[in-house]
Amino acid sequence: MNAKSKLRSEELTHLAKEFYKYKIKYLEEHSNKSIINYNKQKLLEYFQASEEDWRNWEWQMKNRVNTTDVLKNIFNMSVDSIANIEKVSSVYRWSVTPYYLSQIRLASNSDPFFLQVIPSICELETWGSNDPMGENSTNPAGAITRRYPDRAIINITNSCPSYCRHCQRRRNIGTYDFDTSISKINDSILYIKQHPEIRDVLVTGGDALTLSDEALDKILWQLNQIPSIEIIRIGTRTPVTLPQRITPQLVKILETYSPIYINTQFNHPLEVTEEASLACKMLVDAGIVMGNQMVFLKNVNNNLYTVQLLNPLLLENRIRPYYIFHPKNIIGTHHFYISVSQGLEIVKGLRGNTSGLAIPTYVYNSENGNGKIPLSPECLAAEEDEECIYIETWEGKKITINKK
Ligand code: SF4
Questions:
Q1: What letter would DSSP give residue 63?
Q2: Which of 48, 100, 342, 363 is deepest in the core (most CB within 10 A)?
Q3: Which residues, given as ranges, of the chain have pLDDT below 70?
Q4: Residue 392: how many CB atoms within 10 A of its CB?
């Protein structure tokens, strides 16, 4: 090795040092399952259930936790914390699968699982609006949302295994679960048939995979019969919040309607559990293409190392980090909001420090159904004159590119 290469190699090792320390700490935390196993045993005792029940997605759905009784039983929580949860419950519904609940290591807002599914008193702030993306005005028929020329969304249910506290569709959660009526589904299918320019349909909700295998099969079959439909995408967080839902029977159904794309939402590396990895493996092995749509969430993932750890972990599981969403100004979610400049700073920090494959597109979902706008540090950093454009490398070094 010549002296120059040696120097550069040392420089790069030095740059990797801090993140590597963080990664080792994470791996230790990830491998320590004692709290999770304890939580699981307490939950099994509480529900008088078996290991077999735990592995059954319908059992998990039926026993979603939505009262503070269970929290009091499992976690050491203060009277005030419990009272706050009850106060928020009277305004916004909450629900969490026993599986996802068992992953909470600390019943406080410093825990990424707790923060994402347990109601916070901050939800009662009145900042924001109910439907900033104007989804209610982009619904031309049945349960369709249409924002782009060649694709459309069908919302087939309002139900989810766990109700994420940052949800952009929290206005649809309401007070009870319901699947979209057959007549609305039929109207949606008819609309897609009448618009052959639509070639890509996203089946979502709520969470599309909360439907029974039979109901889902029927919808996918109908879509598959439309000659202009080239691909079907499914929006689901079940690999994260209810990995038990990914059964061999479900995979077989999905395989029938290839090409199927599944977009999910891992927001923190600790969510990539053994169960979640296995669920994703079953899907990918069956030829289903998986993408991840992370949402920037304050105190969950608004720091470079968390994202730098999550994305390669997803790639290892053959999930493409597809988007990072800028949080929306949804009422009740102000405590998750971060600034665009902080988001850009994190995305900029990924460059060079991890491979391009692990850098998703950072997008801002614009108001009133105007669609996604990619946000990139380059857009802001680039300067130009008649001759040249001046850009920065990932290390902040200035590079000049001749325009001609
Ligand atoms: S799974 Fe998706 S739709 Fe359901 S609550 Fe979470 S973010 Fe909202």
A1: T
A2: 100
A3: 369, 379-382, 391, 393-394, 403-404
A4: 16
Query: 346: closest CA among 317, 315, 324, 313?
Result: 324
Q: Is the CB of 328 under 6 A from ligand 1?
A: no
**pLDDT reported for residue 380:** 60
What is the CA(72)–ligand 1 centre distance, in A? 25
Q: In a 10 Å sphere around its CB, with 0-12 CB exposed, 13-18 middle and 19+ buried, how is residue 306 labelled?
A: buried
- CB-CB contact of 327 with 279 (8 Å): no
237 ligand 1 Cβ < 6 A: yes
Please write the tens of the pLDDT for every residue from 76-111.
899 999 999 999 999 999 999 999 999 999 999 899
Please give the Cα distance from 329 to 364 (Å, whole number). 11
Ligand 1 atom, smallest distance to 170 CA: 8
> Ligand 1 centroid to 85 CA: how many Å?
19
Ligand 1 centroid–CA 260 distance in Å is: 20
For 126-184, the DSSP string reads: --SBS-TT-GGGS--STTEE--SSSEEEEE-BS--SS--TT-TTHHHH-SS--BPPHHH
Ligand 1 atom, smallest distance to 206 CA: 3
Q: Reduce the secondary structure of 189-252 to three states and give it as a string.
A: HHHHHHCCCCCEEEEECCCHHHCCHHHHHHHHHHHHCCCCCCEEEEECCHHHHCHHHCCHHHHH
Residue 164 beta carbon below 6 angstroms from any ligand 1 atom: yes
Beta carbon of 207 within 6 Å of any ligand 1 atom = yes
| Ligand 1 nearest atom to the CA of residue 237, by list position | 1
Q: Whose CA is nearest to atom 8 of ligand 1?
A: 167
Which CATH number does 135-375 carry?
3.20.20.70
Specify the ligand 1 atom closest to the Cα of 236. Answer: 1
Phi, psi at 396, each rounded to 5°: 85, 10
Radius of gyration of the chain (CA): 22
Q: What atom of ligand 1 comes closest to residue 205's alpha carbon?
A: 3
292 forms beta bridges with 264, 321
Q: What is the pLDDT of residue 12?
A: 93
pLDDT digits (tens, 9 = 90+) for 128-171: 888 777 777 889 999 999 989 999 999 999 999 999 999 988 88
Domain range annotation of the chain: 34-124, 135-375
Query: 245 in ligand 1 pocket by Cβ < 6 Å?
Result: no
